[in-house]
Amino acid sequence: MTSSASRSYAEAGVDTAAGDLAVELMKSAVGATHGPQVLGGVGGFAGLFDASALLGYRRPLLATSTDGVGTKVAIAQALDIHDTIGQDLVAMVVDDIVVVGATPLFMTDYIACGKVHPERIAAIVRGIAEACSATGTALVGGETAEHPGLLGADDYDVAGAAVGVVEADAVLGPERVTDGDVVIAMASSGLHSNGFSLVRHILAKNGVGYHDQSDALGGVVGRVLLEPTALYTAPLLGVLAEHPGAVHALSHVTGGGIAANLARVLPVGSWVELDRGTWSPPAVFRVLSDMAGDPLESAEGTWNLGIGMLAVVEAAQAAAVMAALDARGVRSWQAGTVSTARRELAGFEQGAKGVDGGAVRLVGSYAV
């Protein structure tokens, strides 16, 4: 029997039955991320994770990160394709954790929507769960909240947070970087999950719809834009284990672009010139820049332009690290070298997001 309170809540726009169905539909995908460390299964008030393994660490440091996927969700909603946005979320969160050398342990997600469409919510969570499995991260909990009147019936946003662990003496960062270190670039899978407000502005200004076919992009515009963010965690953890001490710092190229994100993980007083000629930005960046009437260089502070992650590596081991990345399906190349020689740094990006780091600028012309 349905209570009058339940009927009133439904009339107000909140369907608790739909929420329960969404949980049932996502249970198997979420459960697939659970190893023996996860206790209690799906649906508890809090996720439980057995941290006994941390007793084997000398000085375990917990690493945590939280993020969303920005306005990329607007394209997913427009195309009614929802199973890719979850990988974007995991990549934005978990690949920030591996930057310090940490192994991810568990993650939680949050989905706010105007109306719960069970199959849609399950598709989003299925994408999150599959990406969690690919990165070795347990999805231990989450929340789906209906916000009728605040969000439209087909609107939603996603966010997540994750926790990882690293030995204190294995933390990667500026303190390890030295003069002569090599900067290795790792290819992105496309736009990833940054700069979509600019993307949407460019398309709207040019009258291009998400459902339009684009020969230049090689497919339907919206589908090309929804290409999921590459996941670097598992390959990088493998490289760190295979070549201990070789990697000194990592930088996840997200909001702010290439130079600013690399500057954050370099020591004060160091600088890098990244050679544009070492890579060719994929078609999606060239097409969007052409639509905007701007050169690729103008988007360097917004889009990744083909580089999703950067590694600062001991020069003598750079070739071995690149070979190890390539063997794990991550295309990589040498893009620059760290220097501490005194020089004028006008025109360089110097630190970012409150970090007093090194200085970075891009030089030369992009490869064709």
UniProtKB/TrEMBL annotation:
GO annotation, biological process: 'de novo' IMP biosynthetic process; adenine biosynthetic process
Coiled-coil residue windows: none
InterPro entries referenced in this protein's UniProt entry, alphabetically: PurM-like_C_dom, PurM-like_C_sf, PurM-like_N, PurM-like_N_sf, PurM_cligase
Superkingdom of origin: Bacteria
Principal location: cytoplasm
Record-annotated PurM-like N-terminal domain positions: 61-166
Localization in the cell: Cytoplasm
NCBIfam families hit by this protein: purM
Family: Belongs to the AIR synthase family.
Protein name according to UniProt: Phosphoribosylformylglycinamidine cyclo-ligase
Organism: Microcella daejeonensis
Protein's gene: purM
